[in-house]
Amino acid sequence: MNTPRSQAPSGPIHMVDLQGLHRRLRRELDRAMDEVLQESAFIRGRHVSAFEAKLSATLPLDAHVVGCGNGTDALYLALRALGVGPGDEVIVPDFSFIATAEVVAEVGATPVFADIDPRTFNLDPASAERARSPRTKALIVVHLFGQCANMDALVPWAQEHGLRLVEDNAQSLGAVYCGVNVHGPAGTLGDMGCTSFFPSKNLGALGDGGAVMARNADLADRARLVANHGAKHKYHHLEVGINSRLDGLQAAFLNVKLDHYHDLIARRQAAADRYDAMLAGSAVGTPHRGPHSSHVFHQYCVMLPASCDRSAVQDALKAQGIPTAVYYPGALSAQPAMAEVGRVAEGETPVSQNAAARILALPMHTELTEDIQAFVVEQLSRTLSVV
């Protein structure tokens, strides 16, 4: 590893340094909160509509944005808007957060678990084809860790077979795909996109929040209807919906962060570049960057050697004050909650199983410094030499 011997940082090392970020933006965040308090418009209101329009214009999505309660609700609303329900199957990657499969079961459909690409950890088109059946109605493509899946393959494949394509871009908001046949921002490449504003996300609220995005106005309107108790007008409910709203205070905070979003992404990308250089020639596998997608580095995940005891590595780093995380420690198909509700694609999901056993996330955030990274990499190198 190309890192000089380094000293431990004087302060704590954070997996995600929200305190540091909010310290830099404190005056703007305070001002936004004061505006909401003075207006006392906490549900919907101008801050929400302003944020929905601003998000579309800033990235730019050129899409209709519907704010909602959280990222899981966003996925649920997308499936409802697309008419996915009982009797249908939805292809999902076996290596993702539980919400990806959970929402499929919640609408009464069957999640079908497909394998991932060993380099990007995103949905493998060949495995998706093996997962397809006459009951398949849709697929959820997760743009994991900050870069887009192989949309040049997945978009035309979905169109060929009449499948609806939902993008889970909770970790890739702001990434752009520039392929041979498919172009555009993450979340706008399929039928509907879904994102999360969980505090640790690249664009994080100071609470919870999410959004659905669609270039088709009718789909966006339908998502908004379902999110509002199935009503277009108060006390007139066209169908059974849910209550899922992005509140005004969170929208005001997100509007502040959106003004800085390109800088926030650039900071993450610079930190990833430094990690890449420091880890060059090491025993760990650094993140692969696909040729057709930008990478916004929600996480910086390395692959440990196959013989490595990951728990021992984490314990040793923790003893040095270095936090790490595992995204994700198991395949979705192995979760007890999925045992009776889903099925696995032909050929199983060996790549997902391998990734779950070896992956390790290092600290990644907008406040990360070269000194902190040098210390992290040096301690990782020392640990790997003895465990």
Widest sheet, order of strands: 1-9-8-5-4-2-3-13
* Helix/strand class: alpha/beta
Total E-strand runs: 14
The low-confidence parts are none
Q: State the major sheet.
A: 8 strands, mixed
Quaternary: single chain
Question: What are the main properties of this structure?
Answer:
387 residues, alpha/beta, Aspartate Aminotransferase, domain 2, Aspartate Aminotransferase, domain 1, 2 domains, 8-stranded mixed beta sheet, two-stranded antiparallel sheet, 13 helices, 14 strands, 37% helix
Short description:
Helices cover 37% and strands 15% of the residues. The protein has 13 helices and 14 strands.
Which SSEs are present, and which pair or pack?
Layout: H1 18-24, H2 26-39, H3 46-58, E1 64-68, H4 71-81, E2 89-93, H5 99-106, E3 110-114, H6 125-131, E4 136-142, H7 151-160, E5 164-168, E6 176-178, E7 183-185, E8 192-196, E9 210-214, H8 217-227, E10 231-233, E11 236-237, H9 248-259, H10 261-278, E12 300-303, H11 310-319, E13 343-344, H12 350-358, E14 359-362, H13 370-384
Parallel strand pairs: 2-3, 2-4, 3-13, 4-5, 5-8
Antiparallel strand pairs: 1-9, 6-7, 8-9, 10-11, 12-14
